[in-house]
Design a protein that fits this description.
By secondary structure, the protein is mainly β. The protein has a domain of about 190 residues: Cupredoxins -  blue copper proteins (Immunoglobulin-like, Sandwich). Helices cover about 10% and strands about 35% of the residues. The protein has 4 helices and 24 strands. Strands 1, 11, 12, 14, 16, 17, 18 and 20 form an 8-stranded mixed β-sheet that branches. The longest helix has 24 residues. The radius of gyration is 23 Å and the shape is globular.
């Protein structure tokens, strides 16, 4: 007898299953690919209610419930991702984007995740940090056969614990992760008042090595990445984090780049309340202003947003708040650069001259750049050039935001007498 379960695990019936899947996937996937959809998740229409996360520059996957299973569908495929206005990259992702959509579900639920492979090579999906049966762990060759191009596999498991997790391939990993194939998996507590916050942000930390003027990451790069990104976006392309004064805020971060990132928040001290291993007991939490997120790890931080302002939030490795850092940049300090850069860039596309007094001039975007290349330091704030790139954005804490209205409130209007000022002689 064919049950739902063995429908997907027996040979002939699997074809039938795949045909059924194709129909549902074709109904859902092309629309997703064409339209990234809303940036916030609509309230769930079925399953256990939860307070959805806000995925920076992303969205959460739709689902359907069927006979007690919550079903999602990931389509691994080549995508074009705008890293920031002015630069698009050829990446691999799921459902039209890198990272793929955030999967959100509730502790205790059973999930079935269909994975369709539209990549040119085989793939799998590993559920990082999640407690699943060995055969659902997604390590190609070890725990399952690889998913060949054109095929669909189903993963099925119950969500044993709440927390912050991620998904990524465990097949040709170096290439597939360097191409941006990854996503977040958030499991909410069964009891909605547990670990409750008002604002719950999430993003993945990743990195790319894309030569200035080109579009496709160099997949063999070990350490010398030149674009340091959050959810495959770089400043000024990373969403701000708007927050109402008085909100309790959580920010969940997962690191799928190849180096650690000390993530620093201005204006607040926070507690590390969770890792991909689970929630940190209150008695074990200590205050921090920077949390190091190791490779292949997740950290959730929390704070009470009681101080209004525009608070910088960034990686503290200073090379990671710059874009397309040329590692062959000659030091120009002491040299009059005048027109040198304009002439040299026609011969050496990734040539970037340092100003003779330092590099701050580059924040004014005066440098000639090859096409599809972001300035190394860029962005403008209310007081001028921000001189940032890469892993940088702003937590915007505001009084008087209408409840539920978390659109970007613009720049902070500082009360009189609260801005650093020039002392006149
Ligand atoms: Cu960093």
């Amino acid at each position: 007898m064919i049950t739902r379960r063995n429908l997907f695990t027996t040979g002939g019936a699997a074809l039938l299953g795949a045909a059924l899947l194709q129909r549902s996937s074709l109904a859902a996937a092309p629309d997703l690919a064409a339209d990234p959809g809303p940036k916030t998740t609509p309230p769930p229409t079925d399953g256990v209610a939860f307070r959805p996360v806000v995925t920076l520059n992303g969205w959460s996957a739709p689902w359907r419930t069927k006979e007690g299973w919550k079903e999602f569908h990931l389509v691994a495929e080549p995508v074009v991702r705008e890293l920031a206005p002015g630069m698009k990259a050829n990446l691999w992702g799921y459902n039209g984007a890198s990272p793929g959509p955030t999967i959100e579900a509730v502790e205790g639920e059973k999930v079935r995740i269909f994975v369709t492979n539209r990549l040119p090579e085989h793939t799998t999906v590993h559920w990082h940090g999640m407690l699943v049966p060995s055969g659902m762990d997604g390590v190609g060759g070890l725990s399952q056969p690889q998913i060949p191009p054109g095929k669909t596999f189903a993963y099925e498991f119950a969500l044993k614990k709440s927390g912050t997790f991620m998904y990524h391939p465990h097949a040709d990993e170096m290439v597939q992760m360097a191409m941006g194939l990854m996503g977040l998996f958030i499991v909410h507590p069964r009891e909605s008042n547990q670990h409750r916050v008002d604002r719950d942000f999430a993003f993945l930390i990743n990195a790319f090595d894309i030569d200035p003027g080109s579009h496709t990451p160099k997949v063999a790069t070990m350490n010398d990445f030149n674009l340091w990104s959050w959810n495959s976006r770089v400043f000024p392309g990373i969403d701000p984090l708007p927050v109402r004064k008085g909100d309790r805020v959580r920010i969940r971060m997962g690191n799928l780049s190849m180096t650690n990132h000390p993530i620093h928040l201005h204006g607040y001290d926070f507690r590390v309340t969770g890792t991909d291993g689970g929630w940190v007991a209150p008695a074990a939490q200590w205050p921090e202003v920077t949390v190091d997120v190791p490779v292949g790890a997740m950290r959730a931080i929390e704070f009470a947003a009681d101080e209004p302002g525009d608070w910088a939030f960034h990686c503290h490795k200073s090379h990671h708040t710059m874009n397309a850092m040329g590692h062959n940049v000659p030091t120009m300090i002491g040299v009059d650069p005048k027109d040198i850069a304009k002439r040299v860039v026609t011969l050496i596309p990734d040539y970037m001259a340092m100003g003779s007094r330092g590099m701050a001039d580059m924040g004014e975007m005066e440098m000639p750049l090859p096409p599809n290349t972001l300035p190394m330091m860029t962005g403008r704030g209310p007081f001028g050039a921000l001189e940032m790139g890469g892993m940088f954005t702003v937590v915007k804490v505001r009084e008087g935001l209408a409840r539920g209205d978390y659109r970007d409130p613009g720049w902070y209007d500082h009360p009189n007498g609260t801005v650093a000022y020039e002392v006149k002689a």
